[in-house]
Amino acid sequence: MLSDDQTLRILEAVDAAFDAQLTFTQDLVKHPSLRTREGSAQDLMHAAMAGRGLEMDRWELDADDLSAHEGYGPTTVSYAGMTNVVGTYRPASEQGRSLILNGHIDVVPEGPSESWSRYPWDAPIIDGWMYGRGAGDMKAGLAANLFAFDAVRAAGFEPAGRIHFQSVVEEECTGNGSLSALMRGYRADAVIIPEPEEDMLVRANVGVLWFRVRVTGNPTHPREMGTGFNAIDAAYTAISALREVEEKWNADRGQHRYFEDLEHPINFNFGGIQGGDWPSSVPAWCEFDVRAAIYPGIPAEQAWAELQDCLASLGGGPAPINAVGVKTGFFSEGYVLEPGSAAEAMLERTHEQVYGSELKSFTTPGYLDGRVFTLYADTPALVYGPVSESIHGFDERVSVESIRRITKSIALFIAGWCGIHEQPGVHSEP
């Protein structure tokens, strides 16, 4: 346990560097780190870690290697130039518990810029909120990891345990970035991922499947529409059939721990559609993209087989529809963070010290990279981060004071979990 003096010194160190932390976060937001374009933001993270004297590792993801792992999500882009960055702190004598501080650098597209009230790739602070695509999801968390570590050292301490700082790609589409880091050998006794989670801890979250459905038709001239088969019309029939699966899975929520009280935990999002070649031709094809959620404990292959059966059944009706699904990204299973771990107990203490209230947990119907560590490394993954609004939407923003509090909690966690040594020549007040 930290003494009151040690705790106060660390908390004051966070406050002393907080303006610099916000400036760094703003700089990070100004790099539009969309998929395949994360390079400049990763350069900034690499420089920030190297400047702290960390042992640096940067590597390009390898889809062939990743595809051998059960947690792999099929990719539709080349990984050439797409890199993870990891900085490692190693104490002179490793006596404490080890820790991974993980975060993703990739962000989702901003959508029509004119629908934002300000430029999406700027990061102004207005009325206590920092704006910008990725500000909440999750560049504020990436910065918090580094500045929490800084605070421990600025307070005159050195952590006694090994710490890996991970800035990964591909969280928003496959989860392959964190999976690649795991396959590279990065493991620890606990993981913190400061995703924007409303100052709370994620207890459970869904798995996610991404796939594309292609529906084929029979093109004709519109004057002979009755002899053709409109693939776009048929696509909406296929969407309706998938909606029935969605509702069936939602009706089963009472059988899945932590999801019983959620009104609609399983969401199928139809995120893109295109089809046809000519306004005056009955369309011969239509494709639509789907994001489907699954409960923890449901194997991805089992869920995929049921979705495939749904599409195949469309070929047996009075007007047969040829609809074929192909994986395009996430093929991930959900997970539950089982209560009672030493890591969670430590976070409960540090949260209460900073917030003055009990740490709450909740279940989310979204994807999180915590599944990589929980499912494949048997490591408690604490997904816990600041209050945000409109992530993946217009005017994404994150609460500045929430960033401060989360950083303080993580800093105290580092000190308590890893243990600390007083730096030579530094002495606490009598």
3D architecture notes:
The structure is a single chain. By secondary structure, the chain is an alpha+beta fold. 33% of the residues lie in helices and 23% in strands. The protein has a six-stranded mixed β-sheet with strand order 1-2-7-3-8-16, sandwiched between helices. The protein has a four-stranded antiparallel β-sheet with strand order 4-5-18-17. Strands 11-12-10-13 form a four-stranded antiparallel β-sheet, with helices on one face. A hairpin with a 2-residue loop joins strand 4 and strand 5 (129-131). It is elongated. It starts with a helix and ends in an 8-residue tail after the last strand. The mean pLDDT is 96.
Count of individual beta strands: 19
Separate helix tally: 11
Strand proportion: 15-25%
Total separate domains:
2
What gross morphology would you assign? elongated
Cα Rg: 24 Å
CATH C-level of the largest domain: Alpha Beta
Summarize the amount of helix as a percent range. 25-40%
Q: How does the major sheet shape up?
A: 6 strands, mixed
CATH superfamily of the largest domain: Zn peptidases
Distance between the termini: 18 Å
CATH architecture of the largest domain: 3-Layer(aba) Sandwich
H-E order: HHHEHEEEEHEEHEEEHEEHEEHEHEEEHE
In short:
This protein has 430 residues and is of the alpha+beta class.
Question: Topology of this protein?
Answer:
Elements lengths: L3 H13 L1 H12 L9 H12 L4 E6 L2 H4 L16 E7 L9 E6 L20 E2 L2 E3 L3 H20 L2 E3 L3 E6 L7 H8 L7 E3 L7 E5 L1 E10 L14 H21 L16 E8 L9 E10 L5 H14 L8 E11 L2 E2 L5 H14 L5 E4 L5 H7 L4 E3 L4 E2 L7 E3 H19 L1 E3 L8
Parallel strand pairs: 3-7, 3-8, 8-16, 9-15
Antiparallel strand pairs: 1-2, 2-7, 4-5, 5-18, 6-19, 9-14, 10-12, 10-13, 11-12, 17-18
